[in-house]
Design goal:
This protein is α+β, with helices and mostly antiparallel strands and 196 residues long. The protein has one domain. The chain has 5 helices and 10 strands, in the order αααβββββββββαβα. The strands form 3 sheets. A 5-stranded mixed sheet has the order 1-2-3-8-9. It has a 3-stranded antiparallel sheet with strand order 4-5-10, with no helix packed on it. Strands 6-7 form a two-stranded antiparallel sheet. α2 crosses α3. It is globular. It starts with 7 loop residues before the first helix and ends with a helix.
Length: 196
């Protein structure tokens, strides 16, 4: 038996105006909500395609698994990390090109061990830890669209306190991105999936 669904506004006894004020006045809350909306939009726009035979979401609190969506495409499992633009970095030029940066790190610190035996306590993500980065570009003009890049093509960390070996294994935390996308980014997810 299906229960009647209520609006979350009704369940929480809050008005649309009150929720709008809360989200507008609290950038951390706004960023968190927008991030989850981006994952949902990514799911509904791309992962309902019949070429994707399975799609799942791992537990957000499982630090051993990185990737917001796990899909099966042509018999292969692919992990996709969904990230958003940093709103304060967004700029538009006279020729209608958008520029910004996306933050590509984890929300929790963890200890990572490298092949050379060294360890770091970091929020940075690892080269090879997921397959494709999907960047929610809603901030570029208020349209739900995404830019994609293979993990192996993302820039690595330049932080001087890390060894060269560690820097080469860690993805940069802030990555420039444009719309229309420029290499290594593309708006064609399925081209990247075919490359993999």
């Amino acid at each position: 038996m299906q229960k009647n669904k209520h609006s979350i506004l009704t369940d929480w006894d809050i008005s649309e105006d009150e929720l709008t004020t809360l989200v507008t006045e609290n950038p951390s809350l706004r960023g968190m909500i927008l991030g989850y909306i981006a994952e949902y939009k990514f799911q509904t726009i791309y992962l309902t395609d019949p070429k994707i035979t399975s799609s799942s979401k791992d537990d957000d609190h499982d630090r051993t698994k990185k990737g917001d969506r796990r899909i099966i495409y042509k018999g292969k499992t692919v992990t996709i990390e969904v990230k958003s633009l940093q709103t304060h970095t967004i700029k538009k030029t006279d020729d209608n090109t958008w520029f910004g940066k996306t933050q590509v790190d984890g929300s929790d610190r963890r200890i990572v061990t490298f092949e050379d035996g060294t360890e770091l306590n970091t929020t940075l993500l690892l080269r090879g830890e997921f397959d494709i980065l999907a960047v929610n570009c809603f901030g570029f003009g208020g349209k739900w669209r995404f830019a994609f890049c293979k993990n192996c093509d993302l820039p690595t960390s330049t932080f001087k306190k890390y060894t060269e070996f560690q820097r080469n294994g860690l993805i940069a935390s802030l990555i420039p991105i444009t719309w229309p996308p420029q290499p290594p980014f593309t708006d064609d997810l399925f081209a990247l999936l075919d490359d993999l």
